[in-house]
Amino acid sequence: MTRVIYMGTPDFAVGPLKALAEDSSYEVVLTVTRPDAPVGRKQILTPSPVKETAMEYGISVFQPVNFKTGENIEYLRRFGADVMVVAAYGNILPEAVLDMVPFGCINIHASLLPKYRGAAPIQWAIINGEEKTGVTIMKMDKGVDTGDIISQREYVIRPDETGASLFDRLSVTGTELLMDTLPDIVSGKAGFIKQDETLASKVGMIKKSDALLDFSMTASELERRVRGFYGWPVAYTYLRGKSVKLHEAKVSESDFSGESGKVFISDGRVFVCCGKGSLEILRLQPEGKKPLSASDCLNGRVIKEGDRFDSRIA
After folding, report:
1. Which CA distances in Å does 27 have to 81, 113, 133, 156, 303?
2. What is the Cβ-side half-sphere exposure of residue 137, based on CA atoms within 13 angstroms?
3. Helices (H), 93-162
4. DSSP code for 141
5. Residue 40 has pLDDT above 90, yes or no
6. What average pLDDT does this structure show over 117-131?
7. What is the pTM of this model?
8. Contact, 118 vs 206, CB < 8 A?
9. Are 236 and 213 in contact (CB under 8 A)?
10. Which end of the chain has the lower number of beta carbons within 10 A, N or C?
């Protein structure tokens, strides 16, 4: 039986942990995840989805702040693992950890490396208008997502794909690919392919401010941002000095001329002028309220002809 240390934090990393825990070929001897974090308005300390899953399966959990201390590194060594599997863990692993186990640290990365190295490949693939993405199983080295590729699986991005839906789909794909690839790694049959640095690209961590919409952009660019940021942090703008979240929109076939951000009402539908083209707003969320359809917003006079969405509070 192969002894596994599993490292992960968000929902994306839950599927692989469950698959490993339920496969008799593997024994997950330890789960490593980020410390409990404050969540919500009351800032209640909340365990990560991976921690909750590990506890359900009776797997020991370790939550170090980082691996800068020898004590934390030595704690991992005590478990005598054969391989470490990492999925969206969210912490830098030093070489002492990467080289600790016979089969190395194996990472599940949600892009077709070497494209989209970094922290948020799922959202940026949608925002940048990619037609396809996928999952890569790679052997980690001291660089950020620079290690050798072991296996990959492509996924065609659907026209209506959101950051949330793609997150879920790639989690399933990542789980399947890991379970198909890990036996070859353990048996020594796996191949390792160096990444082509000339094709490499990097993406940074998503910040809430990234989701603030600039209506001088084209309608197509804005529509992709609404989809890409759906789930978190959610695309937003300002209307009469208050924040408004945009949950769903589409590029309009009708083109309204006017100042960027200006709202037009036509046949009970809400449109907004963009730098190029127009966007139809289908669902939005006024500050302090629940998400509403465009028609409900019109009926409740939340939005009216001549309003203007702005990237500034006032």
Report:
1. 9, 29, 31, 33, 56
2. 26
3. 95-98, 121-127
4. -
5. no
6. 96
7. 0.93
8. no
9. yes
10. C
**Tokens 């006024």 belong to which residue?**
286
For residue 20, give both structure tokens: 């490993």
Count helices and strands (H / E) in the chain. 8, 18
Q: What mean pLDDT do residues 94-116 have?
A: 97
* Spatial contact of 99 and 20, defined as CB atoms under 8 Å apart: no
pLDDT tens digits along 199-217: 999 999 999 999 999 999 9
- Which residues have C-beta within 8 Å of that of residue 198, sequence separation ≥ 6? none
How many residues are present in the chain?
314
Q: Residue 62 corresponds to which tokens in the numbers above?
A: 């370790």
How far is the C-alpha of 16 from the C-alpha of 173, rounded, in Å?
Answer: 10
Local confidence band at 314 (pLDDT 50, 70, 90 cut-offs): low
Q: List the end-to-end C-alpha distance of the chain, in Å, as a whole number.
A: 62
How far apart (Å, rounded) are the C-alpha atoms in residues 303 and 68?
52
Per DSSP, the three-state class of 260 is coil
The candidate with the shortest Cα–Cα distance to 83, out of 181, 202, 212, 11, is 181
- Tokens standing for residue 224: 């992709």
What's the average model confidence in pLDDT over 121-139? 97
**Residue 30 bridge partners (DSSP):** 5
Share of residues in the chain with pLDDT > 70 (%):
99
